[in-house]
Design brief:
It contains 14 helices and 9 strands. With 330 residues, the protein is an alpha/beta fold. The protein has a 7-stranded mixed beta sheet, with helices on both faces. Strands 1-2 form a two-stranded antiparallel ribbon. Helix 2 packs across helix 6, helix 3 packs across helix 4 and helix 9 packs parallel to helix 10. The longest helix has 25 residues. Bound molecules: S-adenosylmethionine.
């Protein structure tokens, strides 16, 4: 009989993936990694956290199993990834995005219902919990802190003077653009409660003088005019086809003649065969937004052509993150 173990191992790994995720979530939530920059016994970690000694030993062993923590002579210590990305204050910190992923747990537990009905998990008029909103917005910053440099490396932004960052979140992309280009100014458009977080981030970067903030709803409110660059980063995946067409038209209207629109998202291959991460992200959007999806470059090109933009170009910055760059006729 054929050896089925490679298949059963893979199936078991997929099915038990939630255990690995919970090990990461619990450790991140309690900030376990801050205790493991130097070697510590399970007993010492349990005392520091006021946790049960046996449960703590099991969690630390679980962290060894998933490859985040190393163990030698009975003591645990962060591996390279945990030390660089899971200790608060480090430049590569990813803890906010881990918490944001954890906040998606309840929604994902209802995936079957969402697939059967084609609807997202109903929010029942609930506003997002302020701590969850903060995890989301600072989580965006965790990711953007790394990928903003990829965008700057992929597209020449010298010569642009005023960027409109639509749904700019924490402002991490605009902050990076302004640091790289001293003559550039930015206007960040986002929901009022998010603009409050963006103001903090911009102030911490020392760039308040070069920023304007426009609190509003991109489905309803005006963006202003005269920008020579508009950034739509990780916005289109949370909207359906119709609202995206309308949004792209608003971006066109906001741009000065000759201006550039950059749409950055998890664009999928034309046959929707990959990247795998982006195919799974479409399900994340189904659960959490109902109308959202991941799109192909051809779909995005159709929206920009309809809005009046010229021929665009596709730029890949990582396997999953792609840019669609288009110009408004001069
Ligand atoms: C996935 S985040 C992307 C943030 C940022 N552009 C980035 O790439 O890091 C989506 C952003 O859109 C904002 N947003 C969602 N709905 C909005 C609306 N109706 N009007 C304005 N902004 C909105 C969210 O608050 C959030 O900051």
């Amino acid at each position: 009989m054929q050896d089925l173990r490679p298949f059963t191992n893979r199936i078991s790994q997929i099915g038990a993936g939630f255990r690995d995720a919970q090990i990461l979530f619990v450790a991140t939530e309690a900030d376990v990694f801050s205790h493991l920059e130097a070697p510590r016994t399970a007993g010492a970690v349990a005392r520091a956290l006021a946790w049960d000694a046996r449960g703590t030993r099991m969690l630390l062993d679980g962290l060894v199993a998933v490859g985040l923590v190393e163990k030698a002579d009975g003591a645990y210590r962060n591996g390279e990834a945990a030390s660089a990305c899971l200790v608060p204050g480090k430049p590569g910190y990813q803890g906010d995005i881990v918490r944001h992923t954890q906040n998606g747990w309840d929604g994902w537990s209802r995936l079957g219902e969402c697939v059967r009905t084609g609807q997202g998990v109903p929010r029942d008029g609930r506003r997002r919990d302020p701590q969850e909103l903060r995890n989301f917005i600072l989580g965006m910053s965790n990711i953007a802190a790394l990928s903003a440099q990829d965008v700057l490396g992929a597209v020449d932004l010298s010569g642009f003077t005023h960027v409109l960052d639509v749904g700019g979140g924490p402002g991490t992309y605009s902050i990076a653009f302004l640091r790289a280009h001293p003559a550039m100014r930015a206007t960040l458009f986002d929901l009022p409660e998010v603009v409050d977080i963006a103001r903090e981030q911009v102030a911490a970067a020392g760039l308040t003088e070069r920023f304007r903030f426009r609190p509003g709803d991109y489905g309803k409110d005006d963006f202003g005019q005269g920008y020579d660059l508009v950034l739509l980063s990780n916005i289109i995946h949370s909207l359906g086809d119709g609202p995206n067409r309308a949004l792209v038209k608003k971006c066109h209207a906001a741009l000065a003649p000759g201006g550039t629109l950059i749409i950055k998202d998890f664009l999928v291959d034309e046959g929707r065969t990959g990247p795998g991460w982006s195919l799974i992200f479409a399900l994340h959007m189904l659960v959490h937004t109902g109308q959202g999806d991941t799109y192909t470059a051809t779909e995005v090109e159709d929206w920009t052509r309809e809005a009046g933009f010229g021929k665009g170009r596709l730029v890949s910055i990582t396997p999953q993150t792609r840019l669609w760059v288009v110009e408004k006729e001069g």
